[in-house]
Write a structure and sequence with these properties.
alpha+beta; 3 domains; six-stranded antiparallel β-barrel; four-stranded antiparallel beta sheet
Length: about 375
């Protein structure tokens, strides 16, 4: 009994230590798991996609901000045709309304939309209308790429901007000639697609990459316990539906699997705004960088020279005075970036030069030209 009692405290301490080690391992593994993304966030499934719709219509009820009928013949013809369909003959009448605007109506038909469901649409002025504020879209058929009508739009437009003007000033906020109609279109035709008849599904990567495609296939095979997934190219992973499993259940489980996507070493530069985005895998070989600028400042301060009072033959002249200053930035020194530096070290090294984003763009392009930047530069 004495030996057992002495061993119990040691056993408890050992179990406590093991539990602490396990918790530490879970805590350390959490960031790695958080870096992974769900498959549904980095890829699309075959057949699950939106379809673009477009239509031409009229917006009425504007407060004198519509199209000029005399300058916009398509607005006039559309108005006359609409009234004729309603039994009103205005072919020979003089029409000069200012509360009608021709518009283009666009929207997206979500996948598996059923007849009777509603979708949002965007209304944009086609003529010279000043604003669509307060207007109402009349019945507008929305066509698909095949020319068939899939939805019909109508409703009160909602404009996010406005325009107010007077004789000497004009104030414009946002774009008053563009508006939205939430749930403004009614789906009239369905796109037939039966997923139950599929015996295989293709997963399309949004950012094609060999490594990411292989990781997705490995994650799916590990989950199913069978080699059902196989990458066919950098952008596609083909999954064979296992026997006795329906496609919907398979995709529901697959889209929740987490995969760490790989990416190319890339530097994205927007010279217009001076924006620089550097990827995590960007590396720089050993290189020395010096950045300096030559500034020449010329200042003109002309002076007026006048003759003495009551002098003969004298005249007033302008005497030029020029001051030229040259700043060669002699304090700029070479900074050495060691080879194979990480993203953080690269940023720290560039920041140590004390330069702005636009000068940094020139440095990155020069380092790339020297062959020391192991990444692709993409200029937007």
């Amino acid at each position: 009994m004495t030996r057992i009692r002495c061993a119990l405290p040691r056993l408890r301490r050992t179990v406590a230590r093991l539990a602490a080690v396990a918790l530490a391992c879970l805590w350390l593994a959490e960031p790695a798991a958080a870096a992974a993304s769900r498959i549904k966030d980095i890829a699309d499934f075959e057949g699950v996609r939106n379809n673009l719709l477009v239509g031409y219509g009229l917006v009425v009820g504007l407060d004198g901000t519509g199209d000029d009928i005399k300058k916009m013949p398509f607005t006039r013809e559309s108005l006359i045709s609409m009234l004729e369909r309603l039994g009103v003959n205005t072919r020979d009448a003089l029409l000069e309304p200012k509360n009608v605007a021709a518009v283009m109506v666009t929207g997206e038909l979500p996948p598996f939309s059923r007849q009777g469901s509603r979708i949002d649409v965007t209304v944009s002025a086609l003529g010279d209308a000043d604003s669509l504020l307060g207007g109402t879209l009349l019945v507008t058929p929305l066509l698909g790429a095949d020319g068939e009508v899939y939805a019909v739009g109508q409703g009160q437009v909602q404009v996010g901007g406005f325009k107010a003007q007077g004789q000497a000033a004009t104030v414009t906020k946002g774009v008053p000639t563009s508006a939205r109609i939430p749930s403004g279109a009614l789906v009239e035709r369905e796109i037939p697609f039966d997923m139950r008849e599929l015996n295989q599904v293709k997963i399309a990567l949004r950012n094609p990459d060999f490594t990411t495609a292989r990781r997705i296939a490995q994650a799916i095979n590990a989950f199913l316990g069978t080699p059902a997934a196989q990458p066919t190219d950098p952008a596609t992973v083909q999954v064979v539906v296992p026997p006795g499993m329906d496609v919907v259940s398979l995709l529901t489980d697959v889209e929740q699997l987490r995969v760490e996507p790989d990416q190319l070493a890339r530097v994205v530069i927007d010279e217009t705004t001076g924006t620089i985005v550097i990827g995590d895998n960007v590396r720089v070989s050993r290189v020395a960088i010096a950045q300096g600028s030559l500034t020449i400042r010329v200042t003109e301060t002309p002076q007026v020279s006048q003759p003495a009072p009551f002098s003969e033959g004298g005249q007033t002249v302008v005497v030029p005075r020029t001051d030229i200053q040259v700043d060669e930035d002699t304090e700029a020194k070479l900074s050495v970036l060691e080879g194979g530096v990480s993203l953080q070290e690269l940023v720290n090294g560039l920041n140590a030069l004390g330069i702005g984003p636009r000068d940094m763009i020139s440095i990155l392009q020069a380092v790339k030209a020297a062959g020391a930047l192991q990444a692709e530069i993409e200029v937007m």
